[in-house]
Design goal:
single chain; alpha/beta; Rossmann fold; seven-stranded mixed β-sheet; four-stranded antiparallel β-sheet
Length: 330
């Protein structure tokens, strides 16, 4: 375990203990400590698992193959692909189509550009973008386990390595994205410094993370789904991400709020809280029921998702949604 004596963002030693947290998503029993910097507000696990220890917390089912999943997941995937395509071709429309905004990932398209998705998982977004805009050169990085045969089947160029160890040339990519990846890296300051180095001047870096300033976190605290200890090492707000941009000499452009799983995040956080009271894993029962295609469980989940949708859209409007996506320019 790595002990942090100073804040990774501002270097302060003024660190305050927040709470003991657990892996409520996968129900491991180990205790972890959550700290917060009193000077800049950055939250983080302390101590943190090292690069070898952390891998034991990523189970074999952490990634799916492209196209895998239940019938509901396939329907959602096709819907998101359709909405993403509209967004890529007509991004300004989404100022009027706010309802659909959480269902797309931000990306800036230019003709014949180079695009990098850091922490691309199973490569699903790379595959989506290749179908929408085949003129680009797409690359992905994924340090975790993935199915190389599945990547080859879908003609995806994904490297199993860490960002810093690849040594891309300076000013190489037009657009770089990290979608719920930055919270997993052990040294955010060095990572964003490297991202700036390989980004072309004037072009776009987009980092999406859970929002530690969300209403769901304020309500449920350590039971917030996106605490996800120990996989999530750092926890960000829009303010701390802006400070990272400033530290790396990147220009802040804008922040988008919300992701399509925010409703699920609220349900999971509530489930974790209830499970702590009754000592039975309600969230696991939800997932098992959906996996076994239990119509009753699926119906309850869909109903809750629909009921929570107006709330999540409102929270995104007032900047208290569960997810944030910050755009930066070199």
């Amino acid at each position: 375990m790595n002990q942090l004596n100073t804040c990774n963002l501002c270097g302060s030693e003024n660190l305050a203990f927040v709470d003991i947290v657990h892996d409520y998503n996968r129900w491991y029993s180990w205790d972890f400590k959550l700290y917060k910097c009193k000077d800049c507000g950055l939250m983080f696990l302390n101590p943190q698992p090292d690069s070898e220890e952390i891998m034991e917390y990523y189970t074999s089912d952490y990634y799916q193959k492209i196209g895998e999943g239940s019938g509901i997941q396939k329907v959602l995937r096709n819907l998101i692909f359709f909405v993403q395509k509209i967004y890529v071709k007509n991004p300004k429309i989404f100022k009027m189509m706010f309802f659909f905004s959480p269902y797309v990932r931000g990306i800036k398209i230019i003709p014949n550009g180079k695009y990098l998705d850091v922490g691309c998982g199973n490569g699903a977004f790379l595959y989506t973008m290749q179908k929408i805009n085949p003129s680009w050169e797409y690359q992905g990085i994924e340090p975790g386990e993935f199915d190389q045969e599945d990547m080859n089947k879908h003609n995806l160029n994904v490297i199993k390595w860490s960002l810093e160890s690849i040594h891309y040339p300076d000013d190489y990519f037009d657009n770089i994205t990290l979608n719920h990846v930055f919270e997993h890296v052990s040294d955010p300051s060095e990572t964003i410094k490297e991202l700036r180095r390989i980004l072309k001047p004037g072009w776009i870096l987009i980092i999406a993370v859970p929002n530690s300033n969300s209403l769901t976190y304020k309500l449920f605290g350590k039971y917030f789904r996106h605490i996800d200890a120990p996989r999530h090492l750092f926890h960000y707000s829009d303010k701390t991400l802006k400070k990272y941009a400033q530290k790396a000499n990147l220009k802040y452009i804008k922040t988008r709020y919300g992701a399509f799983w925010d409703q699920t995040s609220f349900i999971a956080s509530w489930s974790h809280y209830m499970s702590s009271i009754f000592w039975w894993n309600l969230w696991k029962k939800f997932n098992n029921g959906i996996g076994k295609k239990n119509i009753f469980i699926i119906s309850i989940f869909i109903l809750l998702y629909i009921i929570l949708t107006p709330l999540t859209l409102l929270l995104n409007l007032i900047r208290y949604g569960d997810s944030i996506e910050v755009w930066m320019r070199k």
